[in-house]
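Shapes recur. Our protein:

. . .
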Amino acid sequence: MSPRSAAGKSGDEFARAEHAAKFIRARTKLRPKIALVLGSGLGGFADGMQGAARLDYAKIPYFPRSTAIGHAGRLVLGNAGGVPVAVMQGRVHFYEGYSQREVIFPMRVLARLGIRAVILTNAAGGINREYKQGCLVVLRDHINLQGTNPLIGANDSRFGVRFPDLTQVYAKAYQKFALEEGKRLGVEIAQGVYAALTGPSYETPAEIRYLRTIGADLVGMSTVPEVIAAAHLGIRVLGISCVTNMAAGILDQPITAEEVLETGERVKGQFMALLNAVFPRIAAELSAPIAPSKALGDAT
């Protein structure tokens, strides 16, 4: 049975996640607390990690395999910014034909590895007219327009509670770290709200006008299921979008996947510098004692 089909079968998903995590742990001595998920055109970050363990998704038990352009489909465990990190070099998407549960399975494996914080990146279309192509945007919230939720179905309390709170799912402390480090590095950086649609077609100009009306600054086809899963698992989240193209109707030109990848390559240096600056700050925050009055995601 292929990993893709096995991950979708009914049964003990917690046991499958633990089995996949055990497979990964056996192949590296690193025990990272921070994970990074790289979106379209941003996978080059993991290529520069020296002495890292690299595992193709196809070799990890039950792990879904990425078929999207610009997603290498590889888990890399190494050091970045002097901090042990588990890097997903690409993700799977709802539009690839995977169920939402399959989409979030890697996040559940990361939790079983001991991950406590995750940086989720993506390539996004810019709706906010103040953004420029290549701008990095720290997410402060999202709008789920995928028409479903990855937690639908029986809840396994070993993963998390039945009704996870999303009020502050994007950790304010991590937003602050990214904005401060971006400013220090001279990186063009902003904040915004990300809207997730199913894809794989790009949006129409009318849909973009609608999204702007309801408060979206960016639009994409990923990230939100993983954010919901992270909240369920008690993993703190930093979301960063790269505006790889302006959304439909803003510029009088078609949108192509090649444009997305080219922009990701162009901003790679700034993106890598920002991540390497943020990792130590998140690691220090995870090591600090947690005040009893502070709930998950409440740190400022």
Observations:
- The chain has a mean pLDDT of 88.
- Strands lie at 34-38, 53-56, 74-80, 83-89, 117-126, 136-144, 189-196, 218-220, 236-246.
- DSSP finds eight helices and nine strands in the chain.
- The domain at 3-123+133-202+219-245+256-286 is CATH 3.40.50.1580 (Rossmann fold).
